[in-house]
Each structure stands twice: as C-alpha cells, then as structure tokens.
Amino acid sequence: MGDNPHDLVKNRDIHFAELHPDPNQAATAALLLADVEGILNATPYSATHLHVSYQLIEVSLEQIETGLTTMGLHIDNRLLYRLKRALYHYTEETERVNLGCNRSDSKCTRMIFADRYQRMNHKLRDQRPEHWRKYL
C-alpha cells in the first residue's frame, strides 16, 4: 500500500444466492448503492453477480454487504465466496486502521436506509396537518 490514491479504490464482486423472491438481486443492489457515499460504480453483470468499485477510505466491503443484507438481499455463502469475503474483510479492515479510519466512520448503512425510505410509497401516512392530529 503506497501513497497512490488508486490503492484506495477497491473493485470487488458480490455474488447473491439464486433462490430469492427477487430474481434480479444484483440490479436491486446496484439501485440501492447508487447514491451511497464512497461507491464509485455498481454494475450488475448478471442477475446474481454485482461488480462494485468503492473508496476504501469511505466504506468497506463488509459495510456494503451488511447494508445489502439488512435490506433483505441474500449474499451467496458458498465456501469459496465466504473465504474470499473473509480475506477481503480482514485486509480492508487492516488498511483502514493503518489509514486512521474507524469502523464506525461510514454512513453506508444509514444512507441505504435513508435512500430506501425516500423511495418507499408512503400512502399510509396521516395527511392531516400536525396541529389537527393532537385533537383526535
């Protein structure tokens, strides 16, 4: 790891489980990650294969995967993928610690939830003004 800023840009592949109610999890994940700070590019290669480029200083693969899992997507847990992810998580955490970043520095999960909330249909919301609500 040097002073080259390209060392801090990581390119990773995320594979999703094939058996899921959403047949195109990679495209769904790309939409969820589109506005997350630190994500440079999220490209679905197939229905279950997503390629992600991100700034390590902003977000780590572990945080991205945690956000996607929290949103209901199922990451493929075959042995080879688990080993790769464990190695990536360890090396990225070590690099982030050496750069002076904490685990809690990222806003990845919070941004995914905020973006998801804004995109949701809120038809069940109370349409009455705030001052009318306390009278009923």
What features would you describe in this structure?
This protein has 136 residues and is an alpha+beta fold. The chain has a single domain, classed as 2-Layer Sandwich (Alpha-Beta Plaits). Strands 1-3-2 form a three-stranded antiparallel beta sheet, with helices on one face. Strand 2 and strand 3 form a beta hairpin. Helix 2 runs parallel beside helix 4. It is globular. The N and C termini lie far apart (62 Å). The mean pLDDT is 83.
| Overall pLDDT metric | 83
Shape: globular
- Low-confidence regions: none
Strand order within the widest beta sheet: 1-3-2
Using the coordinates shown, work out and report the CATH topology. Answer: Alpha-Beta Plaits
Largest sheet: 3 strands, antiparallel
Computed over alpha carbons, the radius of gyration is: 18 Å
Q: Can you tell me the number of structural domains?
A: 1
By DSSP (H or I, 4+ residues per run), the number of helices equals 5
Q: What is the helix fraction of residues, given as a range?
A: 40-55%
SS class: alpha+beta
Distance between the termini: 62 Å
> How many strand elements?
3
Q: What is the N-to-C succession of helices and strands? A: EHEEHHHH
CATH architecture: 2-Layer Sandwich
Identify the CATH class: Alpha Beta
Strand content: 15-25%
